[in-house]
Structures are given as structure tokens and as C-alpha cells.
């Protein structure tokens, strides 16, 4: 069975070729390792009547398609809130760090205050092609269906994404894992500048949910803002087919093609 990773020890995971991002076969898309860390958060001393509400990921270095080591721990535990912390390492070097807030669930008698969804429904079909991209890794095992906009367009865009393989063989994706695999693609859903001319890379990913998404498809309503002489961000409203479930954000590092170093 195809999968993003194969577990070789309790905290050791071999990366498969399907983790490779769109810019080459040797470096991972940040979605799969973020989801792998999320899996470990979900398994870290789970508590009844508590749910993960927010996960913040910092990408410390390019993540090679190699064996990953994942460690998590609880750094703050109270009656109703808990803060988890985790690290993904390659060869003893940390490449990704994350924190997750876990809260007790709200009372069912609290009045609902919701935001209406504006993303069009999942299109019946469609494919994507990103010229110059490595399409045999991550891009080959995640369905993309744009509902509005598209690659290299200035206007905000929305798309539905669906992972077609699990993190690990024979293990179903949880809603959080499914979302983290695709949420890092928010800055790709609305990618207004040609990355061959103006490389734009996110150094983090912050995802917050009011409820866990349902179903296979995750909708991303993305808006990227770039300011000359400043920087850029991508902000995303996250949907499932029942409506809005949460949001995500990414801070972007932007350089011109003549830049040689960060």
C-alpha cells in the first residue's frame, strides 16, 4: 500500500517518495511531516472530553526525504487546557517544531455563532498542472480541484484538496491529519507570483479548528498578501462540505531570483 511514511521504530519513520514537494524529489512538502507530528500529538496522553483546538508548526530547515524521528511531550497540564510540544528531527537535527493546544470541549447548550461558507462546492472533476514542478511526489497523491482562481493568478483562490494515501500503511487518516497534509498548500492555492521568478516559501503553519472536519475533502479559501519592502502572508478559511471549520495562516519568506541567501 502506498503511504507517506513507514514506521520502523516507535518514534522513527522512513519517508517515502510521496512526501517530496513540488520543487524536487529530495525535499519534503511540509504537509506530510506536519501531519506526522499531529499524529503524535493525538496519541500523546489523550484525555476524555478534550480535543486539539490549534496546532502551530515552525519549519526550521528543508526536510529531506529521509528517516524522521518524532518526539512529543506535555509541557503544561491544567484541568481544562493542555499544551503539547513536539519535534521532528533528521539525523539528530531538528527540522520542524510544533505546539498543540488541547481544550475540554464546550457545553452543548452554548449558543452557536458560525461563519457562512463562501467556497463553491467540490467540482465534479479536474486536474492541476504546475509548470516546472515535481509532480511525481506529493502532487501525485493529493487531489486538487480549484473552485475559483488558479495557479499564478492575482485574485484570491479556493480549492478542494483530498489526500489519496494514508500517513502510514493500513492506518486511516484522522480529520486533523488529513487537514495538516493539505493546509500547508494554502500558499499554493493562492500563488500570485511565479515561483521561478519570485520564490515564496512559508516558514510556519498555524491551524485552528472550531470543530473537526468531516469527510474526505478539505476546502481552502486562500488569500495571499505581498508588500514590496515588507513581506507577505497567506490566510486561509478552512471548510468541509458542511461549512467552515476553522482557519490557517502562513508567514512567507519572499526573495527575488537574484537573491543568493536568506
Please provide a written account of the structure.
This protein has 262 residues and is mainly beta. It has a single domain, classed as Acyl-CoA thioesterase, double hotdog domain (Porin, Beta Barrel), CATH 2.40.160. It is built from four helices and 13 strands. It is globular, with a radius of gyration of 18 Å.
List descriptors.
single chain, 262 residues, Porin, 13-stranded antiparallel sheet, 13 strands, 40% strand, globular
Distance N to C terminus: 39 Å
The succession of helices and strands, N to C, reads EEHEEEEHEEHHEEEEE
* Largest beta-sheet characterization: 13 strands, antiparallel
Structural class: mainly beta
Name the helicity range: 10-25%
DSSP strand content: 35-45%
**Which topology does CATH recognise?**
Porin
Number of helices: 4
Number of strands: 13
Shape type: globular
Output the CATH homologous superfamily: Acyl-CoA thioesterase, double hotdog domain
Name of the top-level CATH class: Mainly Beta
Short description:
This protein has 262 residues and is mostly beta strands. It has 4 helices and 13 strands. The chain has helices at residues 31-43, 138-141, 175-183, 186-189, and strands at residues 5-9, 12-15, 50-59, 67-77, 81-90, 93-104, 142-148, 157-163, 200-202, 204-209, 218-226, 232-240, 243-254.
Amino acid at each position: 500500500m502506498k503511504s507517506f511514511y513507514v514506521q520502523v521504530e516507535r518514534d522513527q519513520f522512513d519517508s517515502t517518495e510521496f512526501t517530496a514537494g513540488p520543487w524536487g524529489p529530495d525535499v519534503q512538502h511540509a504537509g506530510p511531516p506536519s501531519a506526522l507530528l499531529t499524529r503524535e500529538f493525538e496519541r500523546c496522553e489523550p484525555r476524555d472530553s478534550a480535543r486539539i483546538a490549534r496546532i502551530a508548526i515552525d519549519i526550521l530547515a528543508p526536510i529531506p526525504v529521509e528517516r524522521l524521528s518524532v518526539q512529543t511531550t506535555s509541557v503544561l497540564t491544567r484541568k481544562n487546557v493542555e499544551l503539547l510540544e513536539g519535534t521532528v528531527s533528521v539525523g539528530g537535527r531538528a527540522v520542524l517544531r510544533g505546539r498543540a493546544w488541547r481544550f475540554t470541549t464546550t457545553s452543548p447548550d452554548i449558543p452557536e455563532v458560525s461563519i457562512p461558507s463562501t467556497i463553491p462546492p467540490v467540482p465534479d472533476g479536474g486536474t492541476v498542472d504546475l509548470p516546472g514542478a515535481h509532480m511525481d511526489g506529493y502532487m501525485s497523491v493529493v487531489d486538487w480541484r480549484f473552485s475559483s482562481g488558479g495557479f499564478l493568478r492575482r485574485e484570491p483562490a479556493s480549492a478542494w484538496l483530498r489526500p489519496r494515501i494514508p500517513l502510514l500503511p493500513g492506518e486511516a487518516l484522522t480529520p486533523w491529519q488529513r487537514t495538516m497534509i493539505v493546509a500547508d498548500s494554502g500558499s499554493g492555492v493562492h500563488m500570485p507570483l511565479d515561483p521561478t521568478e519570485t520564490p515564496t516559501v512559508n516558514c510556519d503553519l498555524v491551524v485552528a479548528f472550531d470543530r473537526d472536519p468531516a469527510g474526505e475533502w478539505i476546502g481552502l479559501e486562500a488569500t495571499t498578501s505581498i508588500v514590496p519592502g515588507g513581506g507577505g502572508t497567506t490566510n486561509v478559511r478552512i471548510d468541509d462540505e458542511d461549512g467552515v471549520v476553522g482557519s490557517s495562516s502562513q508567514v512567507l519568506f519572499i526573495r527575488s531570483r537574484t537573491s543568493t541567501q536568506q
